[in-house]
Design brief:
This protein has about 400 residues and is of the alpha+beta class. The protein has 3 domains: about 210 residues, no CATH class; about 60 residues; about 110 residues, Pleckstrin-homology domain (PH domain)/Phosphotyrosine-binding domain (PTB) (PH-domain like, Roll). Helix content is about 30%, strand content about 25%. The strands form 3 sheets. It has a 7-stranded mixed β-sheet with strand order 1-7-6-2-5-3-4. Helix 5 packs across helix 8 and helix 10 packs across helix 11. The longest helix has 28 residues. The chain is globular and about 65 Å long. It starts with a helix and ends with a helix.
C-alpha cells in the first residue's frame, strides 16, 4: 500500500510537471519530436540524452508518461528550499559533476529495480559550444546489468536557444530525435558496442547542424556573459579582455570588434578583428592555443593567472560566501592561491593531485585535491579556461578522440 501511494504521489507530481512542459516549454522552444513511431516502452527503462541547456531534463523527460528519476549535478541541490523540495518530489537525485560517482550508479540500479525509469545525461554537464562532449564511462555497465530497454534521445537547437552562459533566450526550433534498443538486442551487444552506439546516436553539434543553420532564431545574440567562455583574443592573444555588449564582442586590450549573429557566427567589425568563424571555431582555436602553450612551457612557467579571484565556500541554499580574495596561478606543477586580503594563508595544490575540475553556476571553477573541494569564483573572467588547462594537462585530447572519459 505504501509503495502504491508513493508511486501515485510521484505520478501526480510528474503529471503537473509534464503539463507545464506542454503549456510553456514546448511553445517557447517550438519543440518538434521526430521518430514518433519509436514508442517509449513501459516502465522501467533507461533514458539517455545529449545535454545543451538547463531545460533538457524537462524537454526530453516530459515525453515519458511515467515519472522519471533524473540524475542531476549535485550543485543543483544546493538551492533555495522550494527548489530542493521540487527536485526531491519530481524524482531528481544528485551526482558529482565532472567525475564518476559510484554512489549515484548504485542509486540508479536501486531506482530501476523499484520500477522507476531513470534519465541520465552521460556528458555529465551541459555542452560548452553546442557540440556533444565526451561521455563518462560506466553507463554501458548500468545498461548491461539492468537488462532494460534503452531510450536514446538527441536534442538539436537547444544550445542555440540558450547557451549555458547567457541570460538571453532565442526562439527558433528545438528538435528531439529518439531511438530505442530493447533487451534482446542489448543482450547480444558487448559493453563497448553499447557505449559506441549511444555515443553515435546522441552526438550533435548545433552550430554545424545543416538543419539548424536554416532555422531563424529570434532574439538578441548571446553576447552578455560570453566572457565566461571565451577568454583569449584571436587578434592579440591577450587573455581576459573579451567583453560582450549588444550584438558585439570586443577585446579591450587591442580594440578588435566582432558582430555576433544568432547562430554564433563572428563577423569582423573593424580592421583590428581577424576572421574567426563561429563559436565552435573559436573554441577549437582556444584548445589549440592551450595545447601549444603546454607543449612549450617550462615546468615553473605561469600558464595562466587571474587576480581578484574569490576563494569560496558553499551553503546548502546555494550561496557562495567569500573566504578570501586573491591571485590564482597555474603552472604545469602547481595551482597556487595567494590571498591579497590576508584572510587565509597562501596554499599550493600539486597539479598531479588535482582532479574533478569543472565549472559551476557560470562563474565558479571547482576542483578536488586529496579529498578536499576548492571553489574559486570569478567576477568577470572565465572559469572555463581553468577547466581547459587542467583537461589538456591530463591528456583530454585522447578522450575527445575516442568520445568517452
Amino acid at each position: 500500500m505504501k509503495k502504491a501511494l508513493m508511486y501515485f504521489h510521484r505520478w501526480s507530481f510528474w503529471a503537473l510537471s509534464r503539463l507545464f512542459c506542454v503549456v510553456y516549454l514546448r511553445p517557447r522552444f517550438r519543440l518538434e519530436v521526430r521518430n514518433k513511431d519509436k514508442k517509449i516502452p513501459k516502465r522501467p527503462f533507461i533514458m539517455v540524452s545529449n545535454h545543451g541547456t538547463f531545460f533538457d531534463p524537462w524537454l526530453v523527460g516530459h515525453l515519458s508518461r511515467y515519472p522519471l528519476s533524473i540524475m542531476m549535478n549535485e550543485e543543483g541541490f544546493r538551492a533555495p528550499k522550494f527548489i530542493q523540495w521540487y527536485l526531491k518530489n519530481v524524482g531528481a537525485f544528485p551526482k558529482k559533476k565532472g567525475e564518476s560517482d559510484v554512489g549515484a550508479m548504485k542509486y540508479t540500479l536501486k531506482t530501476l529495480k523499484e520500477g522507476y525509469p531513470v534519465l541520465i545525461f552521460p556528458e555529465g554537464q551541459t555542452s560548452w559550444d553546442g557540440r556533444t562532449q565526451p561521455i563518462y564511462g560506466g553507463i554501458e555497465s548500468i545498461i548491461k546489468r539492468s537488462k532494460l530497454p534503452l531510450v536514446m534521445m538527441r536534442i538539436t537547437g537547444n544550445f542555440i536557444s540558450k547557451p549555458w552562459w547567457s541570460e538571453c533566450f532565442r526562439r527558433g526550433k528545438v528538435i528531439i530525435h529518439r531511438d530505442i534498443l530493447y533487451p534482446d538486442a542489448l543482450s547480444q551487444m558487448k559493453k563497448e558496442e553499447i557505449r559506441d552506439t549511444l555515443i553515435r546516436f546522441i552526438s550533435n553539434s548545433d552550430l554545424e547542424n545543416d538543419e539548424m543553420t536554416q532555422v531563424a532564431f529570434e532574439g538578441a545574440p548571446a553576447t552578455q556573459g560570453i566572457n565566461r567562455f571565451m577568454w583569449m583574443c584571436p587578434a592579440c592573444l591577450i587573455e581576459d579582455h573579451i567583453k560582450g555588449e549588444g550584438d558585439t564582442v570586443s577585446c579591450t586590450a587591442c580594440g578588435a570588434v566582432w558582430k555576433l549573429d544568432t547562430h554564433f557566427r563572428f563577423h569582423p567589425a573593424n580592421d583590428k578583428a581577424v576572421a574567426i568563424g563561429n563559436l565552435v571555431d573559436w573554441s577549437q582555436w582556444h584548445k589549440s592555443k592551450v595545447k601549444e602553450k603546454l607543449a612549450s612551457a617550462g615546468p615553473d612557467e605561469i600558464l595562466t593567472a587571474n587576480d581578484g579571484v574569490h576563494y569560496c565556500d558553499v551553503t546548502d541554499l546555494g550561496e557562495y560566501p567569500t573566504i578570501s580574495v586573491g591571485r590564482l596561478e597555474l603552472t604545469k606543477q602547481n595551482l597556487t592561491f595567494t590571498p591579497s586580503d590576508g584572510a587565509v594563508r597562501p596554499f599550493v595544490l600539486p597539479v598531479e593531485k588535482v582532479n574533478d575540475y569543472v565549472f559551476q553556476m557560470k562563474t565558479i571553477f571547482e576542483c578536488r585535491s586529496e579529498g578536499n573541494v576548492y571553489k574559486f569564483r570569478f567576477e568577470d573572467d572565465s572559469p572555463m579556461k581553468w577547466v581547459f588547462y587542467f583537461r589538456y594537462l591530463n591528456n583530454f585530447a585522447e578522450c575527445e578522440e575516442r568520445g568517452y572519459i
